[in-house]
Structures are given as structure tokens and as C-alpha cells.
Amino acid sequence: MKKSISQGYLRYVFLAFILGILISFGHVVNSYYKTINDFVEIIDMRNENITYGFLYDLIMINIPYIVFHIFFGTYIYRRFCSASIYFFVRNVNRVKWFLSEIFKLYIYAVMYCLFYVMGNCFLPVFSFRYGVRSGLLFEVIMYVVITSLYLLVTALAINVLAVLFDSNLAFVICQFVYCFFLTFYLWPGTYHYDNELEAIDPDYMWMIKCNPFSYIVFYYRKTMMDYVTSIMLYVCMLFIIILAGMYIVKRHNFIVSNQEYE
To answer: Domain residues of the chain, as ranges?
Structure first.
């Protein structure tokens, strides 16, 4: 059973490679892009302006993340539903099991980001038309580290909510929150942009700084401290969700949640 589950989820990881190719396909013919770095900067949103005019681009770039939520948002929850009555009779340490599943989910998130980057760079590399600027490896590492944490936080939130409610409602709730923060992210750039400063009015920068979504947008990651801030934010969010999940795992009767996958 474990083998079939792993193979099934690995297929979803490989899907990130295909999505990466599709995201980069339209940009390969664009003469604006000169280096492989430029393609990495597409998916890390380093050059994305913060206005509603760029909403389509932001949504397209984030589609692979939504796909990850669809397939991995029930990764732990499915285990609850399919094996809880047998597993927890033998292993009463639910917290230890829960933490091990979180670790597996994080491995999938890291692999997903790596395959997404490789897919995004596949056509540019094999077209032999693009050079490489310095700093490419650092960009890729920071992208994988920060984005994998973001995916882990959001997917784990869906899993925890799915235990309390059901997987469909949990997914809808989390995507609604995502859309809210995306809209909140674009608001100051659209209505509070200072043309003289060529930046958002400083009085409204708090709308960016308090928005969790903005911390995966590398448009705002200029220094090493900015990267560390993004990592620490998602680690803190992850810690809170893990604590909530541990509480639920220890006290929830999983057998009553089994109806969705029976």
C-alpha cells in the first residue's frame, strides 16, 4: 500500500516538470529573454509589477502551486481516512506519525519545486540560445527553499482543515484565503503607486509587509535579510499549523471522517 501511494504521488511531482515547460513555452520565442536566469525570474516573480494589470501573469505563474494543493492538500488526510482504524490500533503515538507525514510532505514540496524549475529551464537550455548570468544557483536555491516552505504551509493547512471539515471545503477555504491575499497584494500597487518615487507610497507599504503572499514574490527580495525574513515567516506559520494539527490528531476521532473515501 505504501509503495502504491508513493508511486501515485511521485506522478504528481513529475507533473510539475510539464507545467514548468508550459509556463516557459510562450517566453522562449520572446527576444526579451537573454539568459536562463530570466526564466527562473519568471517563476520566482522577481520582475512582476504589483498592479491588477499583471493579475493574469500572477495567476498563470501560481497555477502549479494550486495544482500542488489539489493533489497534496489531502495527502495526510487520505492516510487518516484509509488506514486510521488499523494504524492507530498498533501505533498509539499519533503525534510522531503526524510529524513523519509532514516531513514526507515537505520532501514532496521540495521535489515539486525542483521539477518545476527544471521544466521551466528545459526548453531554454536545449535551445542553446541563452547564456547564464552569475547568481543562478543562488536564485534557484532560494526559490526552492522559500517556495517549498510556502507549499508545505498551505498544503498542511488544507490537510488539517480537511480533518475538521472535509477535503472539498478545506480546499475552498484555503483558496479563498489565497485569492484574498493576492487581491490585497495588488491593491497598493494599483491605487497607491507614487510615480515620482517609482514605488508604492511608503504609507501603504504595510499592506505588502503584512501579506504572507508577498514573501514568495522575489520582487521584494533584494538582500539576504529579505530572504531570511521570508524563510522565518513561513517557518513560524508552519510551527503554528503543526501545533494545531498535533492537537487535532491527538483528539479527533478519525473513524467518523472515513466516509469520504469509503
So the answer is: 2-256
